[in-house]
Amino acid sequence: MSLFGAALPSRTRSTKSSPADVRRNNRQLIFSLLFPTNQYSRADLGRLTGLSRVAVSDVVGQMLDEGLLRETGQAPSGGKGKRGTLLSIDIDRLNIISLDLTQDHMLHGAVTNLLGQALRHAEITLGADDRVSMEMISELIEKMMGMTEGTVIGIGIASPGVVDGGVVKRSTWLDWHDMDLATPLQERYGINVTVTNDATAAMLTERFFGQGDRNMIFIRIESGIGSAVLINDMPVKGEMHAAGEIGHISIDLNGPQCPCGKRGCLETTISGSALRKQLAGASENERKNILSTAGKHLGQALSMPVGLLDMADVCVYGQPDIINTTFIDAAQAYLDASTASTFHKHTTIRRCECGPDITVQGEAIAVLVHYLSQ
C-alpha cells in the first residue's frame, strides 16, 4: 500500500471489488509510480503494476483528459520495436489552494501545482489577539481563488492540533475545540476541503522532496511542538486521531502549567516560544547550555517511540537559531545512550532542510491524496 492508497493487483481476491473500486485503485497506483517526477511509458507502467495493456491505456487516457498526467516525449530506444511515449505528472493544468495556520501573526496560503510548488502566495495579518476565525480563512481563500489560472481540485488547510476528518478536535495553539472547517467551506465553494495536522503535512514534503524515506518520525518545533509518524509510507493517525502529540508528553510533572491541563509538557519547555524566552539576553555559553538541555529533553521524549517502533530516521524541523548543531547533538547523545542495542539499527536525528513552504506544499500533497481517493 502506498501513501496514495494504491495496492498492487492481487492474484487471489477474497472479496469482489466493484469496477469503480478497481478503476480508482489503478488510477492511484499509476499516479503513485509517477509522483513526483518519474517518467514511464504505458508499457513500463504495465510491467510495474501487472495491469493489462488495455487497463493501463484506459486509466492513462482518463488521467490525461483530467489534467493529472501529460505526455513528455519518446522513451529511449530499447530495440526494434516502436518507442513508447513517456508520461509524467502534469503540473500546468490543475491547481490546489493550500493554507497554513501555524504562522505567527498571520494566515499564510499558496496556490500550488500538483507537486505542491507554490505558484502564488497570499497572506492576511491577524489582529492583536492573534485569533484565527472562519471569516479570515474564507477571506484568504477568496483572495487565492482570484489568483488561480487552472482548475482548482481542492482546498487544503494545515492546522496544529488533533484533526479528525475536516474537524480540528482540539488545538491548544489556536484555542479551538471541535472546529469544523471542512463542512462550511465545502458548502460555500463547492470544492472538497482537506484538513490535516500541520506536522503531518510538513512530513509529506520531507518524504517526497526532502531526505525522508518510507519510515520516519518527523518533529516540528516552532511556536508549539508537533510530530508525525510514517510507517511503510502510511501516516499513523491513532485511535482518536491524536498520534504525534509529542508536545504534550510531560517530562517534568512539577514543571510549568500547560494549556492542555498537565504540567511540564515538552511544549512548555522546548517549543520555539519557550526557548526564545529563555534565550533572551543569554550569553553565548548560556545559549549553548539552554539548547543542549532542550535537545536532551527531546531525546528523552523520543526514546520510547523510537525503541517501540524501531525507527531509524528522526527529522526535526525548526528555525536554525534553535534547531542547530548544539540542539541536535544533545538530542542524539541522549537517544544513543537510552536506545542503543545490538538488535536496533542506529537511529539518526537530523535537521530538516526543506524551505519555508514546507507546510503549504505538504498540505497540497494531502489534498491530492484525498482527490485521488474519490
Automatic annotation (TrEMBL):
InterPro entries recorded: ATPase_NBD, ROK, ROK_cs, WH-like_DNA-bd_sf, WH_DNA-bd_sf
Ranges for the region named Disordered are 1-21
Per the record, the similarity remark reads: Belongs to the ROK (NagC/XylR) family.
PANTHER family attached here?
A: BIFUNCTIONAL UDP-N-ACETYLGLUCOSAMINE 2-EPIMERASE_N-ACETYLMANNOSAMINE KINASE (PTHR18964:SF149), ROK (REPRESSOR, ORF, KINASE) FAMILY (PTHR18964)
Q: What is this protein called?
A: ROK family protein
Q: In the record, what lineage is assigned to the organism producing the protein?
A: Bacteria, Bacillati, Actinomycetota, Actinomycetes, Bifidobacteriales
